[in-house]
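[job 4471] stage=fold_predict status=RUNNING
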Amino acid sequence: MNKAIVIGAAGGTGQVIVSELLSKDVEVIAYGRTEEKLKKLVEDNYHHHLLSYKVGDLYDFSTIVEAAKDVEVMFLCTGVSYHANEEEVLRFGKKMMDLADFLGIKIVFVDGIYVYGYQVAKGDENHPMEPHTRKGKLKVKLERLIFSGQWTRAKALIVRLPDYYGISSQNAYLQPTLEGIAANKPTIFMGNLKTPREYVYLPDAAKMIVNIAEKEESYGEKWNIPGVGLISGKEIIRIAREVTGNRKAVIPLTKFSIRLIGLFDAFMKEVVEIMYLTEKGFVLSGDKYEKRIGPIPATPYKEGLEETLRILMKSKKEI
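[job 4471] inference complete, writing structure tokens
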């Protein structure tokens, strides 16, 4: 891979994928809606000579075509809004596939695990897709559309991540917890503090995603991006307190409390239906990645959390 475009480059996964591509000397076009954020992304990568940016909307076909001249792979790190309906989700998927087909390039969809519903076996790529939520059912339809075979030039793959964390994670469920502790303030935790759950450190996820995308034989398939096992909220908070010295309260938000907040907040209203993932951790198998790509990058939780918190604390002091 010599040249790639990252759509949603200023988002959580977009930022780390841009950095990982640059580390492999891939020329990158960072595409997004907000010029200020894209400029900061360039600055954070020390004005890397291989990095440029283009401002445009997700549905601005002509602008993306112009930006994507001579690219080989498009990384799609953004999507429709959290409360989008079926028509919007499928229109988005078709639009992106039409775009990749027009350009004759590969496309990488970065997605989550809602398609699986409750875990019934080890979470490999063949886990039954039997979601019980509206979002999960829409994601199944999107996957079937992507792999429907109606495009002649585009080659697509899907990578699926569990919950994630890292300095760029922004809207991740763990982010308010880490930001609050780093700021020495009382904060919240999404879900039960005792439930062991899987998280992936975003720099590790970016390495895996790019490694998968580099291989021609990866396309036409879906791939897991696993974390390093299970960890409870209590353990995360213990590590965070060791790093920061913050002993302020961390309040767990249950499904019931989020439903109440959802009466006044549209985003939190949409979160309610996927709270099942906070009640029983879903673990992704990395067997396929290990067999076909190589060793899984696996930053221990303690190391990844320490690095994230150190940067958060530094940024709070600079504000």
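[job 4471] summary: The two ends are 38 Å apart (CA to CA).
[job 4471] exit 0
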